[in-house]
Amino acid sequence: MTDEGPEIPAATAPAAVPAALEPQGVLDLLGLIAYAQLVAFFRLSDDAALAPTLADKAALAEMAVAEFGHFQLLRGRIEALGADVGQAMTPFVAALDDFHARTAPADWLEGLVKAYVGDGIAADFYRTVATVLDSDTEALVLEVLADTGHSAFVIDRVRAAIAADPRVAGRLALWGRRLVGEAFGQAQRVAAERAPLARLLADGSHQLGDLGRMFASLTDAHEDRMSALGLSS
Amino acid sequence: MTDEGPEIPAATAPAAVPAALEPQGVLDLLGLIAYAQLVAFFRLSDDAALAPTLADKAALAEMAVAEFGHFQLLRGRIEALGADVGQAMTPFVAALDDFHARTAPADWLEGLVKAYVGDGIAADFYRTVATVLDSDTEALVLEVLADTGHSAFVIDRVRAAIAADPRVAGRLALWGRRLVGEAFGQAQRVAAERAPLARLLADGSHQLGDLGRMFASLTDAHEDRMSALGLSS
Using CA atoms, how far apart are residues B204 and B21, in angstroms rounded to an integer? Predict the structure, then answer.
């Protein structure tokens, strides 16, 4: 590990950017988010097979397509930085694939909760991390994370299912806790395995705090989302 | 079943449109193509799991996303006609799902050949049928069928695989014949089961001829595509 990085002249650097932003850390972050979006595309398409109607199936496909659009934006940025998107994503394949293998939804409702809650946690995490990036990259990450407008669809479907059978709520609340636990577990693994990314997070420690404090803040937002679904967290 | 449909006044009907274009037949055709595109989206996403690299995986996802865009166009048209897209697609679910169940690719190359050849046959069929439609619907169908520009990717990958191992060509040629046989079998079933669609095809018989002659013309185009892949048909 090294602390040397290109010094950004104080006059041109935006105030919020740490002086020694490591290029490999930024590439790691972009690679991580790119693979997360690509794999989200595939998981959402898979989960659509569980949909009870053709319209619901199409709605989940639409969410998947939005994730792929995000992947394309990130791929463009990675290539603009002169890097290979496959190489940038590779360090994160195992952790993200494991997350999804360990959280395969058993039915349509679990799939919806995963799409909403998983997407939400990931977005909060990236949004927090984005604050340490240069302003161009930050703007791109925020664009990728803009709500794709599908939340209302999920909230509507989950609340209707709970209204029809209140016992569903307990099972889905448990499922939400499991999702957040698995997500944090894999995030910890990524932070431990990828030094450049871990340093990027540490660079921004005045905003981010340590990983534990970040998890606490992510958990608060997660609880808000569970409430929106009508679930206790 | 009934042969009565609203009579289109001769003065306002475009010259190429048969006088008694049955609305249910048009809706059937749009529903058939819409479901074909939706299911193609899901099958391509599934088949991407077989991709040897992350870049190839992303390329197949991109083809899937293009199919979903087509589905959205068709859904818009069906809704503009005051119909429900789920209802319009339902009569064709069994035949298309059966086609895909009977032609699940065993590996990445079979998936590529299926994407290219299956897409091509479907496009030729819709293009032929579109000639009997009103000009707005015809324009929409032709837009949906415009080459999504992914052919070059498939041709490149399949030709490279044959160059690396010429024995691959025999297996893939057999696979291509099987795909076209299954496609025609399901097309015949759809024509037999859906009277309004069958009548739409018969209405345009001066352009289309009977189903047998249409198959013959589709087979010619199929052979051209197989040659492009470096395969005998």
Answer: 9
